[in-house]
Amino acid sequence: MNTRDDAVLEARDVTIRYGEQAAVKNVNLSIYEKKITAIIGPSGCGKSTLLRSLNRMNDFIEHVTQDGEILYRNTNLYGEGVDPVEVRLHMGMVFQRPNPFPKSIFRNVAWGPTINGLPGDINLRVERALKQAALWNEVKDRLNDSALNLSGGQQQRLCIARALAMEPEVILMDEPCSALDPVSTSRIEDLLFELKQNYTIVIVTHNMQQASRVSDYTAFMENGSLIEYGDTDQVFTRPKQKRTEDYVTGRFG
Amino acid sequence: MNTMTLLTTSKYRWGEAILRQLFFLCALISVLTTVIVIGILAVETSSFFQQVSITDFLFGTEWRPMLEPKAYGILPLLGGTMLIVVGSSIVALPVGLACAVYLSEYASDRARNIIKPVLEVLAGIPTVVYGYFAISFVTPGLRFVFDDVQIFNAASAAIVVGIMVLPMVASLCDDALRSVPLSLREGAYSVGATSYEVTARVVVPAALSGIFAAFVLAVSRAIGETMAVTLAAGATPNLTLNPLESIQTMTAYIVQVSLGDTPSGGLAYKTLFAVASVLFTITLVMNLLANKVMRKYQEVYE
Amino acid sequence: MKTSPSSNGESLGHRSASLRRRHLIAALFKALCIGFTLFAVSVLGLLIAQVGADGLPWLDTQFLNNFPSRFPEKAGIKSALYGTLWVVSLTALIALPMGVLAAIYLEDYAPASRLTRVIEINIANLAGVPSIVYGILGLAIFVRFFGLERSVLAGAMTMSLLILPVIIISSKEAIRAVPSSIRLAAYAVGATQWQVVRSHVLPAAIPGILTGVILALSRAIGETAPLIMIGALTYVAFTPEGPMDEFTALPIQIFNWASRPQAEFHELAAAGIIVLLVVLLTMNALAVFIRYKGTQK
Ligand SMILES: Nc1ncnc2c1ncn2[C@@H]1O[C@H](COP(=O)(O)OP(=O)(O)O)[C@@H](O)[C@H]1O
Ligand SMILES: [Mg+2]
User: Fold this and answer.
1) pLDDT tens-digit series, residues C191-204
2) Which atom of ligand 1 is nearest to the CA of A61?
3) Domain presence at residue B56
4) B184/A99 Cβ within 8 A
């Protein structure tokens, strides 16, 4: 693995349980700066659970317990005195289904920066985020329209803009294209290449082509365990584990 | 052969058709009820208006249908009702909404499983029991705290009516809040919101139409509430803003008339229907509004 | 592109003052919600304590076996208890079949027509009409027009109209919960509509229907205003023998006692409330039991 890259996030021996049931088991994983890391694996293997632990989104689910550490530049996200709200300022998130607020397009993007009192002109910030999300040209004349009137693909790009407006360091994406048509999907994939310049991205996907196309590193999970982690090229063409090979060739070949 | 099949089939169909008509009639009874209610109220009220002018009735500030000199201004009764509505809303709306927010946003499954049944029990307690609670607990309490509280007073009745409609507000607002998708809350948390910001600025606004419908239904219930106000608020048609005084609501007046031996057909008897018409119209309009809003918001999240 | 990496500070754990303030607001808001909820829950405790303290000393067999009286120590609740049982049984006999048949019509038979919509909206709004308006209806139609006077029958019919919307709405929900695959399977083997409803839909929906009916009947037991309207607030020192007899009922007797100035009568009212609540609790336990049995199948 490329050792010159800085690890932004590091999961150490992370185990996550829903009640008694372990959904993530002893996972060790590093996320590198300004790279795209894909997490793949069969449905129910714990991808979302692991991803959501990176911005403490599992805090809201009853009966979830977690062991191990998740280090963000050497601070444990789950350490004492760490504020989950602050964690989420560093780690933005885009969800499986577009979930814009039932507010105007502008308010959707501006809301997070406003409540958090981020500095600078809010109009500029919204414009910048919408441009980065490749949505500006489509919505610049109707920023006060309800976000619910946008198409599914536009809504998802709006949700990406909502995350970008916070200027986080890491963007976590949980199957962001699974509810979208192929055209919208390819737009978002193009977008990922742009965003890589400035952001560290972790993307969960069930789509092998997508993982191999967009990511620098790929993590393969099965049954809650991390089976293999490495350069995307290597994982897809020369997997070290038999199970990875079966999964990748079975789904890919 | 062919005709025979046809015959038996049509016999079959006859039985089915009769049943169908019977079921239809049962469903129609509800419409019939409405029509009859409106018919009775309209007929008796219009004969009332042949003796009392509509403007005297709607804008008169004195209600004295039994004593000389007689006066038929409904404003004191409307004012009394409004006093109860305002007072009970001050209790029921914030507390009910807060309960709902707690239940849908904060409570663990265990807490929910305890509190929901308690609210259901509260909702199932007959109104006459709340009336008793008002005179035996709330009124003495008020008289302990304030100096010039009359034995029968609007405040006591309003508090108790508020408690009475609170479970309904809580339960309907809870439904409305829970119909807001979880993903919306997650989206809000993901941009660094606190639980208060998520609730107050995303979830509650998204559920606003349902909450509004709950409030309208609560007010409508308070307007129609009878036993608690009859027992606790008194029988003094009194156009006042002071909740510590005795008043009379529209409903309490209707009870008062029916308790006495008012001869049917007389003008005093007809006041019953005139007042009931006002009561019915107000509550019907509010219920129509609430149901309409409720259907709208149910469509949004389906 | 990224101009102000404001939040990209390298370290966590140094909450700004404004973030501390926001957390404080969130905590206060949560505390407020919990406090209001506790208030609502404790009201129930308060109410039960007040009723128990006032009423329990009066609750004995004499109270259950005596008729109302001017002398508190001799007064009892017998005629009211019997009157309530009479009214509620008769109400069940009238409202149950009508409500269920109406629900069957609306769920399984009704065409998607304007009239159907009118009926549905009508039922939803009738459920919110103040009960005293039903009392006026009962007074004008049953007592005066049909000449039923202050009879059990007049009371039961008034109550039936009152709870009919509630029964229809809950029965409709129970019927709707029956999976349509059951209906389709029955139609596929050539059953007529009524056969499908009778042998497949109704049996599956019965627990839900009964639960709703019992809850509606408990509402009828507690309703006071409509019975006062039809003139049931009179001195009745006998138990009804038939549907045409005069009657009184538990909530009416409670109202009667509570509206007198003397403290003893207030305590009698509390004792009456205990009897009323016990009746209601029994009904609710029955509903819970039926619901439990229904989910077991
Ligand atoms: N809220 C929850 N409560 C209980 N179990 C859950 C919950 N969410 C997920 N799980 C379980 O945890 C496992 C991993 O789920 P998830 O992380 O969503 O998998 P993936 O995203 O890979 O499909 C699954 O077996 C799932 O059933
Ligand atoms: Mg997932």
Assistant:
1) 888 888 888 888 88
2) 1
3) no
4) yes
